[in-house]
């Protein structure tokens, strides 16, 4: 740590803000194309031209995320792309800094003293340059960047595995229960019905025969107590609570506000009153019910003028295909195993991201040496 130097960020970067060009939405509509158009927090459009080529570090110049930090404030843009005037474009100065190290430093740094504006937070170019950074020698930065890069690679590999497992469960559902290419389908004739062809012996029934939906539970903030159980809102996990109302695995979807996001929850949980949850899995077990509801395009079935709302009684009357119970059970054994494996990987993702994000603060504090950090990485790789 004795050879780490405190310098200003402006001495460690090259700035390319003078190249950026903003285009309004009407201008972008006339220029559709393959090249990403970046704003303060990422890609907001695609157009027919580019200003930059290579890898650059983007840092928001304005926006609430400068204060809330709900997303990383520093991120890479790679390839050919365009940037508007809401993001600073920088590169590490050759021989001085490593851009992966700078990215991680900025995403862990407290930059509030450099952010101005209450209604519209802003990080000016001058204040960006003034940010103080504790910089080790370049070869140490590169070792740290290598460790961080390895964590990012592990996270990306896991992300692809999760997506593949979830896609396998979805495609199997479509093959068997939408396209009717289930095991042994060659020996079963399709029969015409008023609602289209069905395999012989299959039928259609109201959704309520398959499952029962129920409105979620009130949980005023004054009564919420942090605990081990996830609280599920219409848009996803919304903190934790000391109690659970529903045992796992559960299926939850938005009832009001955000509609159409159907989730499987692998822990006991508390679904909020903005959701509908499956109170009773009658003929549709969890993995099957998940894809059955996703296939109903719930967002298109919403009512309510001011606030979009799903009416569970209306949903219960929606006609759905009712396959044989043994085929549903066979699907469930495969698909639920895949979804549980994806959930385990998602938990690993959280742990990997936490280890990556804590690496730099632990190194700076002296709690961790680079050698120890490299050994910890080997243990999880």
Q: How would you portray this structure in words?
A:
It is built from ten helices and 19 strands. The mean pLDDT is 92. The protein has helices at residues 25-29, 65-68, 99-108, 125-130, 138-177, 207-210, 286-294, 312-316, 325-365, 370-380, and strands spanning 5-8, 13-15, 32-39, 42-47, 52-60, 75-83, 87-92, 132-135, 190-191, 198-199, 203-206, 211-215, 229-233, 236-241, 250-254, 262-265, 270-271, 275-281, 319-322. With 381 residues, the chain is α+β, with helices and mostly antiparallel strands. A hairpin with a 2-residue loop joins strand 13 and strand 14.
- Per DSSP E runs of 2 or more residues, the count of β-strands stands at 19
Our count of helices gives 10
Average pLDDT confidence is 92
- Uncertain segments of ≥5 residues (pLDDT<50)? none
Rounded to an integer, what's the Rg over CA atoms? 26 Å
Sequence of strands across the biggest β-sheet: 2-7-5-6-3-4
State the helical fraction. 25-40%
Strand content: 15-25%
Tell me about the largest β-sheet: 6 strands, mixed
Terminal CA distance reads 27 Å
H/E element order? EEHEEEHEEHHEHEEEHEEEEEEEHHEHH
> Structural class, judged by helices and strands?
alpha+beta
Described by the principal axes of the CA atoms, the overall outline is elongated
């Amino acid at each position: 740590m004795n050879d780490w130097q405190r310098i200003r960020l402006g001495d460690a970067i090259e700035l390319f803000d003078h190249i950026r060009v903003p285009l309004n939405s009407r201008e972008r509509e006339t220029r559709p194309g393959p090249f990403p158009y970046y704003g303060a927090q990422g890609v907001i459009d695609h157009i027919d031209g580019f200003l930059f080529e290579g890898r650059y570090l983007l840092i928001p110049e304005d926006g609430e995320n400068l204060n809330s930090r709900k997303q990383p404030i520093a991120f890479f843009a790679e390839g050919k792309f365009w940037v508007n005037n809401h993001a600073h474009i920088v590169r590490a100065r050759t021989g001085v800094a490593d851009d992966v190290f700078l990215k991680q430093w900025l995403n862990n740094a407290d930059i509030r003293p450099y952010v101005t504006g209450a209604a519209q937070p802003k990080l000016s170019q001058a204040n960006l340059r003034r940010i103080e950074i504790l910089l080790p020698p370049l070869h140490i930065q590169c070792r740290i960047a290598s460790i961080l890069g390895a964590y990012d690679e592990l996270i990306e590999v896991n992300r692809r595995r999760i997506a593949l497992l979830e896609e396998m469960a979805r495609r199997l559902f479509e093959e068997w229960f939408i396209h009717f290419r289930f095991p042994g389908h060659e020996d079963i004739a399709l029969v015409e019905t008023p609602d289209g062809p069905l395999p012989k012996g299959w039928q259609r029934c109201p959704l309520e025969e398959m499952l029962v939906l129920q409105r979620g539970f009130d949980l005023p903030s004054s009564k919420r107590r942090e605990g081990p159980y996830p609280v599920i809102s219409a848009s996803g996990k919304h903190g934790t609570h000391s109690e659970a109302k529903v045992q796992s695995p559960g299926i939850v979807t938005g009832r009001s506000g955000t509609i159409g996001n159907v989730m499987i929850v692998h822990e006991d949980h508390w679904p909020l009153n903005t959701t509908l949850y499956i109170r009773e899995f009658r003929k549709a077990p969890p993995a099957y019910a998940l894809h059955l509801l996703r296939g109903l395009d719930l967002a298109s079935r919403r009512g309510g003028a001011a606030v979009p709302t799903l009416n569970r009684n209306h949903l219960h009357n929606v006609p759905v295909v009712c396959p044989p119970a043994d085929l549903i059970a066979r699907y469930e054994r495969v698909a639920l195993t895949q979804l549980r494996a994806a959930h385990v990987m998602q938990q690993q993702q959280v742990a990997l991201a936490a280890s990556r994000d804590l690496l730099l603060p632990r190194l700076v504090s002296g709690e961790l040496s680079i050698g120890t950090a490299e050994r910890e990485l080997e243990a999880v790789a």
